Structures are given as structure tokens and as C-alpha cells.
Amino acid sequence: MRRFLARNAPGYMFLLPWLLGFFLLALGPILASLYLSFTRYDMVSAPRWTGFGNYVYMFTRDRRFWKAIDVTFSYVAMAVPARLIMALGVAMLLDKGLRTISLYRAIFYLPSLLGSSIAIAILWRQLFSGDGAVNQLLAMVGIQGPSWITDPNTSLYTLVVLAMWQFGSPMLIFLAGLRAIPRDLYEAAEIDGTPRWRQFLRITLPLLAPVIFFNLVLQTIDAFKTFSSVFIISHGNGAPADSLLFYTVYLFNEAFKFFRMGYASALAWVLLIIIAAFTALAFLSSKYWVHYENDRD
Amino acid sequence: MLYPLLWLVSSSVKPENEIFTSLSVWPQKFQFDNYVKGWNGLPMPFTVFYKNSLIVTVLSVIGNLISCSFAAYAFARLRFTGRSFFFALMMTTLMIPYHVVLIPQYVEFLKLGWVNTYLPLVVPKFLATDGFFVFLMVQFFRQLPRELDEAAMIDGCSPFKIYWKIILPLSLPAMGTAAIFSFIWVWEDFLGPLIYLNDIKTYTVPLALRLFLDAEGESVFGQMFAMSVLSLVPVVIFFILFQKLIVRGIATSGMK
Sign of the C-alpha dihedral, residues B6, B9, B15, B17? Predict the structure, then answer.
């Protein structure tokens, strides 16, 4: 017994802060939130058990929930591919070995680093407002642009453009991946007279598949969790006309504006399940399109 | 690529009427009173908000560095029963979206009477809740040669002494990366302060910036942009100083 303690004590001593955090700020809250999701809880009176009430209401009668799902999925479906294509395109340009590469790498990366700051959200709101810079630019070529941010038909696209602008981190990962592809493969293809687009399809894409996969999963999870910029741009409530009612914004409002803590907990669990399901799907499908170096015969 | 940022900077030194009439990033006339007026444009001067942001950010960075390196040292270098089990748990929590713990944590902190203080923002950082940094440091610590610890152990060094004298000094790149990213993330954090800070005296810079939007009228745009620019300054400085480290950090770990 004494020896057991002597052997394990240092480990647990160093692990103590993490253990406290894990039990008090992760596991405890996770269980509590699961419980709350089956209750009605307004923070004033004690939680009241309602069984699957929250979930049934959410799926059958809550139209704003479905709106939030619609908005969020549309955003993910547009923003993630847009950002990844941008990232891959620019990474391939940089990979061509420009002398000033590190300068460009840095410049392209900066917007991503500033990404979640409120200043950028404020800037975006201004650029895409009725008399903002984007419309002034369009006016020069004679196009009368809509009031992008306040028009429910276009507001979501402004956020997709924002996501595209912040392609820096997947770009760096692509760049690292491209560097790992052996040059002689391209040289051999060049000698065989294989056209560029074919080299891209036959060499670049397959060898980059694990990196594409990694970026895809990471960026999708990230996109589902988008909050600060949308919160600022949509006046905190998904305006105009709920066209920016992102899932996280809806959850925030249910919890901290209307104090429907039980319902918001249920929303959080559905988000968890959506993200987990997507990740699992990506991993399952990856068998068919991602081949790792050592799988090859 | 940089045009939006340049537009922001130039708008902050343009007179109000030029902001919306000219696309040029070179102002016809430079004027800096947006900065002066903006600094004092809210019920409290920005001095207060910057001080608040600095307190929260610096404490958070210190907390993250201490607690995450502790946990990482235990996971990467020490042998004890249950190590792989807890490591697996840690990796699982990395994938759980913050929203799941948000509400119970809020209730927990409210009951402790911590709302409107910095405790809910800072204390979790001392408890290694940013599992991502733990993971990053574990990866780094694992690469260090085992012989170092073994030799030190034979010389009678305690595990703490090994951590302090051997592992940490060799891990400056990893610690630096974690420090920079946790500074930037906490500095930019909006959701945490939004939930926990209700009294304007306690506001951090991002919350203060939002006040301009509520006060929205044509006349405050220049000031809002000026303060927005200032809010980005620490991040940009870090970026310029540690560009290489930041770029490498992303490429190897996928962080934002």
C-alpha cells in the first residue's frame, strides 16, 4: 500500500489541477446539462422534470429551432468548402516557391488570427452595409448593390465571404502537406507529358487526402460553433428576419435572454450530437477516399 | 487581402464624412481626434477596459501555462496507475463543444457569487480546462529524451525538480506557442465576458466595443473604428514578433 502510494503520488500531484478541472468544470457540468435537458428550469425555481418534453417540442413545434438548423447547415455547407478551396488554391500558389513566401504566408494568415475579434465583426458590418465600401465599389461599375447585411436574402453570404477571407489556418496546413509530396512524382509526370490538371487529380489530391480530411473535420466543427462575429453582425438575435439565426446564437438567447436553461441544455446536446455524428461520418467515409502513406502497397 | 484591414485603419483617421464617401485607404486629411474622442467616448474611458482585459488575459495565460504543463508533465513523463485512462478522458473532452458545459458552469458560478467578477474567466484556466494546450505540451514533452529524467532521478532529483529544471527549460518553444495563443484567444474572447460581466466597470475591450454599436449614430463610426484598431494592436504586435512560432504552431497542430 505504501509502495503503491509512493509510486503514484507524484503523478496525481501533477495531475491535480487537471483532475479538479475535469470533475468540477467538465464531467460535473456535462452530467448536469444532460439532466437539465430533461427539465424546465428558469434559474428561479428548482428544475422540473419533463422527460423528453424539450426534445419533442424542439423537433415538432419549435419553428425557430428548424430555422436555426437551416441557417447553420447552409452556412457550414457554403463556408467550409469555400474556405478550403481558397486555402488549397493559395497554398498551391505559395508552394510554387516564391522567394517572398514567408511574407505572403504571414499576410494571408493575419485575418484568421484576428478572426474572432469583435473589431473584425464591426468592420464587416460596415463594409457590407448599404453605403459601405462594397457597394461603393459596385457602384463604380454601375451596379446598385443591396443592403447586404440588412437584407435577409444576402446577409448569410456576407458571413460566407468573411469565412473565405479567413482561410489562413487551413492554408498553412495544406502548405505543410504539399511540401511533403515528393517532387520527383511531378518530375516523372512532367516527362510523361501529363497535363497539369491531371497531375493535380492524380498526384496532388490523392496524396493530400489525409490533410484535406483533417482540415475538413476541423473546419466543419469550427463552423458549427461560429458565434462572436454573427452575434455582433446580427444584433445579438439573428436579425434580419432570423436569416442569421445561427444555432449558437439561438442557444445563447434561449439561455441568457429568456432563461430557458433546460431547453437551452437540450439544444446544446443536440449540437453535440450533430457534431459527433458529422465527425463519425467523416471518419467512416474517409476509408473510401483517404489513403495514408503506409496503406499503399 | 489586406484591404479590409487597411480600410479600417484609414477610416479611423478620416473625418466622419469622408469614411463613407471615399474608398481610398489614403485619407485626404489625417485627423486623430477619433482616437481621443473614442478613448473617452463611452461612460468609462478605455483605460478601464484595457486594464480589465489585461488583468483577465495575463492571469489566464499564467494559469494555462502552469496548470497545462503540470498535467502534460504527468501524462508525458510520469508513470502512475490510471494514466492512460485519464489521458483518454482528456482527449474526449477536447471534442465536446463548450456549449454543453456552458449552462451548468454558469449556474455553478452564479451560486458561488462569482458573476461580475473575473473568477469565472480566470479560475478555469488554473485548472487546465484548455485541453488543447495540454495535448500540445504532451506531444512536445514526449519528444525529449527519457535519459534526461532517468539520470536526474538517479542523482536524486524529485519529480518536481525534474519538471522545473529539465523539462520546462527545454520546452520553451511549446510554452511560448501556448502563451501566445492563449493570450490572443483570451484577448479576443467575447462569449465568456458577455455572460459573466454585466457591470460596465468590469467590461473587457470586446464588450466595450460593442457599446458603440448600441450607441450607433453616424457620429460615432470614426471613434468605433479607432477603438477597433486599438483592440487589434496587441494581437498584431504578437503576430509580428512571433510570426515564425505562430506559423509553425498552426502548421503542425491545426490551431487557429
Answer: positive
The answer to whether B79 faces chain A, any CB pair under 8 Å, is yes
A48 DSSP β-pair partners: A40
| Cα gap A170→B30, rounded to integer Å | 37
What is the rounded distance in angstroms from the CA atom of residue A153 to the CA atom of residue B54?
40
- pLDDT category at B104 given cuts 50, 70, 90 is very high
Three cell numbers written together for A103: 511574407
Yes or no, beta carbons of B20 and A132 under 8 Å apart: yes
The answer to whether residue B252 neighbours chain A at the CB level (below 8 Å) is yes
Q: Please tell me the distance from the alpha carbon of residue A271 to that of residue A210, in angstroms, as a whole number.
A: 26
Q: Cβ–Cβ of B221/A126 closer than 8 Å?
A: yes
Inform me whether the C-beta atom of residue B184 falls under 8 Å from chain A C-beta atoms.
yes
Which H helix or E strand runs over A49? Answer: strand A48-49
Amino acid at A25: L
| Rounded Cα gap, residues A284 and A287, in angstroms | 6
Would you say residue A226 has pLDDT above 90? Answer: yes
Distance CA B39, CA B47 (A): 8
What distance in Å separates residue B134's CA from the closest CA in chain A? 9
Q: Which of A12, A6, A157 is nearest to A75 (CA)?
A: A157
Q: Which DSSP state fits B200?
A: G
Region at A158 (left for phi over 0; alpha for psi -120 to 50; beta for the rest):
alpha
Tell me how far apart the alpha carbons of residues A122 and A215 are, in angstroms, rounded to a whole number.
27
The pTM of this model reads 0.93
C-alpha dihedral (B19, B24, B29, B32), degrees to nearest 10: 60
Q: How far apart are CA B67 and CA B73, in angstroms?
A: 10
B109 within 8 A of B123, measured Cβ to Cβ: no
Q: Which residue has the cell 477610416?
A: B11
What pLDDT, in 10s, does the model give residues A262-273? 999 999 999 999
Judge residue B169's burial from the number of C-beta atoms within 10 Å of its C-beta, 0-12 exposed, 13-18 middle, 19 or more buried: exposed
Report CB contact under 8 Å: B251, A11: no
How far from each other are the two terminal CA atoms of chain A, in whole angstroms? 51
**ipTM of the predicted structure?**
0.92
The amino acid sitting at B166 is I
Question: Average pLDDT in the A250-260 region?
Answer: 97
User: Chain B: nearest CA to A247, how far in angstroms?
Assistant: 11
Partners of A39 in beta bridges: A49
pLDDT higher than 60, residue A296:
no
- Closest residue of chain A to B134, computed from CA coordinates: A18
- Nearest-CA neighbor of B36 among B25, B49, B47, B27? B47
Q: Nearest-CA distance from B233 to chain A in Å?
A: 10
